[in-house]
């Protein structure tokens, strides 16, 4: 039975390359045409493959519907939370998870630091778009035209002397973030707070969320916090793998 299931599933990536006839499917599987036909008929009955008028087979609409339903029902917060807790246990600092929704980037999860200093951030609260590391990651993933349009209409409040001052500087920062694959906020929103962040990506490679580690200067310096970047990125990669359904090859953290 397991061999039958394995053969049936092997048909799907073949048809993802394009329509194929019975002979092509049988040849790829290394089986007799009668066996290939039996497998194709079963997949056809479940809507996973479709037989065209030219007798070639392609992926069926039911497969796409299942994939879309699965994506819509994924809860990034539920998937990410155990990873955020583990990261917090390892480094001791505040860990955030944020997503881009319409014109805002919102915190959707937070694990507090172990020390008495607490950050003002709250779940459901929008982040400062022009300075927050998680916002930079979410916005850097937008197509260039959207990034430029957004940058032109934003206000650029000078929270500190390190805040992003204007659209040109913001676009330059987003380009750098897009290229390097991570972001920082080193005193851009609050002089005493530093932050490093990494993106969480879906199966298509697009950014679906961003996570960060934040700490005040009285606890660690900016340089000390930056040493945690590899750990933050590995954690984000682990969440990305679980969210997109990729099987991890090793323990990410």
From TrEMBL:
HTH iclR-type domain location: 2-61
Alphabetized InterPro entries for the sequence: GAF-like_dom_sf (IPR029016), HTH_MetabolicPath_Reg (IPR050707), Tscrpt_reg_IclR_C (IPR014757), Tscrpt_reg_IclR_N (IPR005471), WH-like_DNA-bd_sf (IPR036388), WH_DNA-bd_sf (IPR036390)
Protein name according to UniProt: IclR family transcriptional regulator
PROSITE patterns: HTH_ICLR, ICLR_ED
Chain ranges of the IclR-ED domain: 62-245
Residues annotated as transmembrane: none
The organism of origin for this protein: Streptomyces gottesmaniae
Domain of life assignment: Bacteria
Keyword Chloroplast among UniProt keywords: no
SMART domains, alphabetized: HTH_ICLR
Transcription regulation as UniProt keyword: yes
Keywords in alphabetical order: DNA-binding, Transcription, Transcription regulation
């Amino acid at each position: 039975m397991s061999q039958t299931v394995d053969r049936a599933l092997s048909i799907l990536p073949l048809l993802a390359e394009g329509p194929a006839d019975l002979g092509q499917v049988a040849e790829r599987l290394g089986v007799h045409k009668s066996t290939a036909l039996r497998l194709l008929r079963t997949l056809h009955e479940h809507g996973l493959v479709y037989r065209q008028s030219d007798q070639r087979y392609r992926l069926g609409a039911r497969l796409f519907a299942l994939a879309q339903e699965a994506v819509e029902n994924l809860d990034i917060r539920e998937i990410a939370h155990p990873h955020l807790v583990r990261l917090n246990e390892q480094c001791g600092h505040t860990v955030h998870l944020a997503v881009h929704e319409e014109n805002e980037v919102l915190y959707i999860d937070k694990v507090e630091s172990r020390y008495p200093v607490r950050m003002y951030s709250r779940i459901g609260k929008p982040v400062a778009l022009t300075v927050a590391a998680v916002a930079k990651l979410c916005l850097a993933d937008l197509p260039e035209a959207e990034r430029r349009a957004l940058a032109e209409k934003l206000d650029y409040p000078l929270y500190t002397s390190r805040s992003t001052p204007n659209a040109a500087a913001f676009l330059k920062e987003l380009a750098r973030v897009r290229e390097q694959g991570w972001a920082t906020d080193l005193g851009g929103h609050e002089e005493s707070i530093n932050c490093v962040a990494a993106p969480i990506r879906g199966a298509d490679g697009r950014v679906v969320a961003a996570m960060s580690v934040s700490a005040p200067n009285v606890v660690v310096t900016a340089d000390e916090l930056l040493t945690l970047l590899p750990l933050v990125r590995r954690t984000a990669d682990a969440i990305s793998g679980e969210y997109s359904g990729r099987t991890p090859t090793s323990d990410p953290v």
